[in-house]
Design a protein that fits this description.
Homing Intron 3 (I-Ppo) Encoded Endonuclease, Chain A
Length: 184
């Protein structure tokens, strides 16, 4: 379908892309979403709506995006529209990808976090060794429901359950930090 100035949608779209090598990022040169809201993705006007440039690149190359799916970047460059760098994923996959690649403020990166990654590993090891959730919660100055979610891996998911099992010294240090937080 011909659009602005007689160009097809595809011609208009690709005219706004700096195409590099086949395996490199293809940088979007058109409009960028509202940066003040953290949206750094390219945007493209299509039939009176604004759509994500990376989403349109995916659709023009691979076909329609099923409802509820996200277009994820393997390159972690929000302005890249190279179809080779794009794949589909559900919300959970997208969030996990973001977390694994360190693009989210999670765990101890959150300024108001009470715990460190080492604390979380220590809590999980203490739980596996038989210490009750209530005792762990008191030790680390968190409520019992949070301690329960942490030791079961429902919270602090970015901290692997047992990447490197903490040493006894790390557990003792985490325990002492926990005592200091609750004023014991």
């Amino acid at each position: 379908m011909a659009g602005q100035r007689g160009l097809t949608t595809e011609e208009r779209f690709w005219s706004k892309v700096k195409i590099s090598g086949p395996d490199e990022c293809w940088e979007w040169q058109g409009a960028i979403g509202n940066k003040s809201e953290g949206k750094r993705y390219g945007s493209f006007a299509l039939r009176g709506k604004v759509v994500g440039a990376h989403r349109l690149s995916y659709e023009m190359t691979y076909g329609a995006i099923p409802p509820g799916f996200y277009v994820m970047h393997s390159c972690d460059n929000p302005q890249c529209v190279n179809p080779k760098h794009l794949s589909l994923g559900a919300q959970t996959e997208n969030m996990r990808d973001m977390c694994v690649k360190g693009r989210s403020r999670r765990g101890e990166q959150v300024s108001r976090a009470k715990l460190t990654d080492a604390d979380v590993r220590a809590m999980r090891k203490l739980y596996k060794s038989g210490l009750s959730i209530g005792a762990i919660a008191r030790c680390f100055g968190v409520v019992r429901s949070n301690a329960s979610c942490i030791v079961r891996g429902l919270q602090w998911k970015c901290v692997e359950l047992e990447p490197d099992t903490p040493t006894q010294e790390e557990i003792k240090a985490a325990f002492e930090r926990g005592k200091a937080r609750v004023g014991r």
